[in-house]
Design brief:
The chain is mostly helical. It contains 5 helices and no strands. α1 packs antiparallel against α2, α1 runs parallel beside α3 and α2 packs across α4. The radius of gyration is 14 Å and the shape is globular. The termini are far apart.
């Protein structure tokens, strides 16, 4: 029998805002935490988080982060997958 474990990220808004402010972290790093926050049952201030992403990078970066997080591809380290995320067609 396989037991499923659900992890909860606590303090999602604070964690994401902290990570966004850290210059050494890249958009893909933020996408991973963004995905974990999406899965958390804790209430998040998405408006504040998204605004911080746009202020640091751009609106296009917000779209990139959301797409990588929603698809789960942010956790896939295969280079071809990362190129597909970066080379997204509109």
């Amino acid at each position: 029998m396989i037991n499923k474990v659900k992890l909860e990220l606590a303090g999602c808004t604070v964690i994401l805002l902290n990570e966004i402010s850290r210059k050494e972290l890249k958009r893909l790093d933020i996408a991973m935490t963004y995905r974990l926050a999406m899965e958390s049952s804790e209430e998040k201030d998405w408006l504040k988080i998204n605004k911080a992403i746009i202020e640091r990078w751009s609106h296009a970066a917000l779209i990139y982060i959301k797409e990588a997080a929603h698809s789960g591809r942010c956790f896939d380290s295969h280079p071809k997958t990362l190129r597909r995320i970066k080379g997204r067609k509109k």
